[in-house]
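Human: I hope this is not a bother. Would you mind checking the protein record under this note? Thank you for your patience.
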Amino acid sequence: MAAARGSVFASGFPPGIPRHSYPAPRARRLALISSTQRLFAVSTAEQLPSAPTSVPGPTPTTEGELGQNRRHWKDREPNGSAAASPFMEDEGSEVEGKKRLEDFFDLAKDLIRSAGGLPRWFSPLECASRINNSPLLLYLPGIDGTGAGLASQHKKLGKIFDVWCLHIPVMDRTPFTDLVKLIEKTVKSESHNSPNRPIYLVGESLGACLALAVAARNPDLDLILILSNPATSFNASQVQSLIPLLEIMPDQVQLTLPYLLSLMRGDPLNTLRATSEKALPPQEMVAELSKDLLNMPSFISVLADILPKGTFLWKLQMLKSASAYTNSRLHAVKAQTLLLISERDQLLPSQAEASRLYRALPGCEIRRYEENGHFLFLQEDGNGIDLVTTIKGATFYRRGKSRDYISDYLPPTHSEFIKLYESNKWFSDMTAPVMLSTLEDGTIVRGLAGIPSEGPVLLVGYHMLLGLEIISLMAQFLIERNIHVRGIAHPMLFPKYKEDGSTLSPFFYDAFRIMGAVPVSGTNLFKLLSRKSHVLLYPGGVREALHRKGEEYKLFWPEQAEFVRMAARFGAKIVPFGTVGEDDIGQVVLDYEDLMKIPYYRDQIMRNTEGNVKLRTTATGEVANQDMHLPGIMPKIPGRFYYLFGKPIDTEGRKQELKDREKSHELYLEVKSEVERCIAYLQDKREGDPYRSIFSRLVYQTVNGSSSDIPTFEL
């Protein structure tokens, strides 16, 4: 039914892991995982809370914080009742760079206070409160071996994972292959205990080699690898030259430690830029930068305890054997893999290595970070990586054998939404969207008061050119009504990244997936409506969003009533809506027909189309044309976007009636007619908008303030 439509953009441990006493004097504290028990902040799984469904996010204090024509963030619905927040809990999600490094050294100091012993696991107490059926995440450290690399992210990771970190004591000399076997025992044991639960292996440099080696030795286990700058490229790196230098260097001389610390801190210019962007008074800015310099000696002191000369030399030699061992077994790795690659890695040639691993590993995805150095999770310049956000964007989170786009979905945190909103705010400022909705009595009002608060609600409308209307629509529903709209999207939003440049940057797709886009299918629509969600649906799909010249505001809906009976099954309210404004920002000058006449573009269109899932294979006519292309568009001086949401159509109690094909088709045509009426209304009324032009809006904001609501036509 729904398979043809969608938005274009739109508990014990295994033997072999020794038990040791473990000091934990600070408040953050850890729980040692031994061969017989694990200690958490709570003692049993039954005490852990279920997934948080409604946690209020921070509330902006002024309209200016969310830009022009934006209403105050609502903690309550219009009727005054408490409104559940659509956001995932935001606690611990935003960590400043300097806090990351401080957290790392703070935890590392506690870890190395132990006199020694063998490698062992610990579980941070911050990770004790997680959602049900959380998968296991094993963190495998890099050359430091402390297991503290994710210290600043423990709380957020602990909401969705059962987090265990591997600690390798400073004086331990366990060979690489024995470390692989130790991890392998844990993986096999936990896989046996929870056969339907995946196990995540998150590894940095040396830890990435450990993860790949374990995966190669266990191709039949359900493993998900997340690898940061793997040390599989060690033999091609300049770090090897440090080995003979360290062998002859006196123990008292620690020339490498300041260099390593500088790599952990990241580019100092980026640090300065991040500090200046806070717009602090000069005195506070100087104090913050001075504090950073004053911390350097204490950080070097801890680093000297973590990596004394003998340990550092041992780790470098281990990297050499780890690289050789892992590279010889890459062909056996079958696990789903996400590579996190720094393009300014000064320790390893990670950029080139990523391309090699991408070709060698069958289930591999890549995220490249242009501004980051080797220590991705410790970056101190405002470009630090949020691992949970990255996993969510790459759709790498699942709790079962296969990913369920509905039950495995994790809503954005408030800070994630704000970050995405701010990155697209320029577009909302440029188009100054006007949102109108229709109340139960038929009155049209400005704002979204006419949208039902309780789901299931099915928003059905016209797909503008390139789906440009989605950006403002999704944001405004969250800002004004605290409603998280889930978009039914074309499979092209879920592609496997290709190194040949045939796909856009993966971060482009990540934004839509973080905001809840799901691949179009009848099953996904069924699940969303059954969960009483607000669902965004475009029956015109690709054909409508990639329309030809002169086809603005023309609906390309299929003949059959695809969504009506599904909506009636759950008693959903159908809200027809129209959008207008694409012809005010650009004009199609090269459409599908023109591009197909040019051999280069014709071949490109055919490749892109063949690489996507085929939809509407049984449909006929124009709506069946799903060829993927990017029309040539000539920009215009920006006008304004307008949205009108019609009166909700209630299907409650009409399930039996709408089983009749004729009755369901009548309702389908009613919805389509209402969408066309909304478009016609907006086209007519915008002619009387004195602020349709961007120039008149700029004048208005100059006089009244940049955050003021811009008026529109009279209703």
User: Anything to note?
Assistant: The chain has 21 helices and 19 strands. Confidence is low (pLDDT under 50) at residues 1-29, 34-82, 92-97. Residues 282-306 form the longest helix (25 residues). The chain has three domains: 96-236+316-394, 246-311, 415-583+638-704.
